[in-house]
Amino acid sequence: MTIKIGYAALLELDRLAELSLISEREHHERQPHFFPWTPSAQQTLERLASAFDSPDTNPESRTILVARNKGEVVGFLQFDLHSPDFESPASQIYILDISIDHSMRGGGVGRQLLDAVEALAKKSGIQRIDADVWEGNTASKGLFEALGYSPLKTNYTKLF
Predict the structure, then answer these.
(1) Virtual CA dihedral for 45, 82, 77, 6, nearest 10 degrees?
(2) Considering only CA atoms, which of 56, 127, 133, 145 is closest in space to residue 97?
(3) pTM score, two decimals?
């Protein structure tokens, strides 16, 4: 199996939404108090489409990386670039979502996507990447820790 990592194309939007909905359903199953509903397919499409709203047609201006196996999208990583203020260049990447097709999980796709976003950060002079991992998502925690990420903080919540 040869996985190729690249920037997402608009024609892949439906597949990205399909993968994202799987991830969102899993969030709902693990944490139903925080995710009492899952977004509709249309809401997910609209959220992902915003990554293509830039007037810049250069694919590298997009914030979605995809993993392709034989041309088919089998996973993606969506991120934001953050800067300390509106005038400074980006100094941090925040990972919004990593979604991998069930049949490809555990096969290194997530690692390759994270390697790619790390390479992008280094190329851009960005020195920090952050991501939130929800309790119960042991696979994601294991992946991040295997790649040298460490927990920064723990949030406590009480529901009524």
Answers:
(1) 100
(2) 133
(3) 0.85
Instruction: Report residue 88 as tokens.
Output: 């400074």
Kindly give, in sequence order, each residue whose CB lies less than 8 Å from that of residue 6, ignoring residues fewer than 6 positions away.
Answer: 59, 65, 66, 68
Token readout for 84 is: 């300390």
Q: Which domains does the chain have, with CATH numbers?
A: 3-146 (3.40.630.30)
Backbone angles phi, psi at 97, to 5 degrees: -160, 140
Query: 49-67, pLDDT tens digit by residue?
Result: 887 776 555 555 568 999 9
Instruction: With H, G, I as helix, E, B as strand and everything else as coil, classify residue 117.
Output: helix
Torsions phi, psi for 80 (to 5 deg): -120, 150
